[in-house]
Amino acid sequence: MLIYVAIFLFLLIPVIRFDLMKIEGNKSLWFYSSLIILILLAGLRYRVGSDTLIYMRQFNSNPSMRELSTFNFRTAEYNPLWYIFNSPFVTMKSFTMFQIAHATVVNSIFFWFFRKYVPTAYFTAIFVYYFGYFFYFNMDVLRESLCVGILLLAYPYLEKKKFIQYYLLCIVALFMHMSAIVMFVIPFTLIFKRDNIYIFVCVFCSLICLLLIFDIVSFILSIAFEGIIAEKINSYLHRDAPNLFGIALQFLTMLPVLLVTFVRNRNHYNNDKTIGAILLMLIAIQTVGMSIAAFVRFNNYLAPFCIVFIINTFYLHYWDMRRHFKLLMIVYCALFVYAFSLSRFYFKSRSEDYPGGRHYHTYIPYHSIFDPVEDERRETLIKNMRSNDMLIKF
């Protein structure tokens, strides 16, 4: 726990120094130091994170580089690129090297993306990423986080409407994780403009889709997939829908984007228009997620864009918004709700899996390869989470 707090405070220093106080000097040193620290934190962990334990158990059964040529990818549990990515480290017989490589790839891409698209406040973006998404992307959804990284690399092509290059990277991501199918839909959001009416049209269309989605999913599954893959996707999509409280929380998740979009449209802010259009998908996904809980997972792909959208709006237009008190209060409200939504993930109750359990217990306490201790509470909690089928992998 102390190491997490220490890094939290370390990442807060450049936010205050460079983003808020606008002090120049040594920005690159702070940037790369932050990157290295997060890579080491994730790369040197020992049995921390729910999915990490699953992949550790399966690691030695994955094919080595020599075995790839004879490995049966058609009957494998995961997509081919995952085994290819693993193979050098299976050959070395080092799961730690795999963790370091994974953390290096994911965090380097995220840091590059924030530096490129939040040039005036990228330390704030890094801070929000650490607080809200770092543990999830580096210790849980390891395959999906690589796909999110590929999406971030593909975004400059999408921004320039170079669709061939963009879709080539989409295909690469699809060979890593089936959820990357959402990347193929993202370019269609560019037809939306920034007018508020399109938000409501998007929500309305999503509600209509609720009446049709199950038939659509069944139809697509019957054509595109067969066997165990179709069964996994179908069961994942047909998990129990949220109750009224769950629906309210889903709404809170998309509320910051709605509020910030309202302020931007009201004041005619023109930066990040492409990202703003893409985030209409978040509204659509959250709306569908009120009925089909599994759909919310697609928002993993939109998380970095949400960070950029909200932070750029606050930093680039703060002095203009100060002249409009009500609009500034709306933005502050959006920031508060956003922070609440991010923190809610960690405090989600897991008492059905372990008495008094919370999701943060999958990350706390932290143990490294230099202190290889198996935490009994975490091991039991994750074992029960898996037996209760918390996440169906596909």
Task: Describe this protein's structure.
There is one protein chain. This protein is 66% helix and 0% strand. It is an all-alpha fold and 394 residues long. The protein contains 17 helices and no strands. The chain is globular. The model is unreliable at 220-228 and 390-394 (pLDDT under 50). It has helices at 2-20, 27-43, 50-59, 80-92, 95-117, 122-132, 134-139, 142-159, 163-174, 196-224, 227-237, 244-267, 273-278, 280-289, 303-321, 325-346, 376-387.
Provide a compact summary of the structure:
It contains 17 helices and no strands. The protein has 394 residues and is mostly helical.
Tally of separate helices? 17
Order of helices and strands: HHHHHHHHHHHHHHHHH
| Tally of DSSP β-strands | 0
> What distance separates the N and C termini?
32 Å
Can you tell me the residue ranges where pLDDT is under 50 for at least 5 consecutive residues? 220-228, 390-394
Q: What structural class do the secondary elements suggest?
A: mainly alpha
Rg, alpha carbons = 21 Å
Largest sheet composition: none
How are the elements arranged and paired?
Blueprint: H1 2-20, H2 27-43, H3 50-59, H4 80-92, H5 95-117, H6 122-132, H7 134-139, H8 142-159, H9 163-174, H10 196-224, H11 227-237, H12 244-267, H13 273-278, H14 280-289, H15 303-321, H16 325-346, H17 376-387
Helix pairs in contact: 1-2, 1-6, 2-5, 5-6, 5-8, 6-15, 8-9, 10-11, 10-14, 12-14, 12-15, 12-16, 15-16
Tag the structure with descriptive keywords.
mainly alpha; disordered C terminus; globular; 394 residues
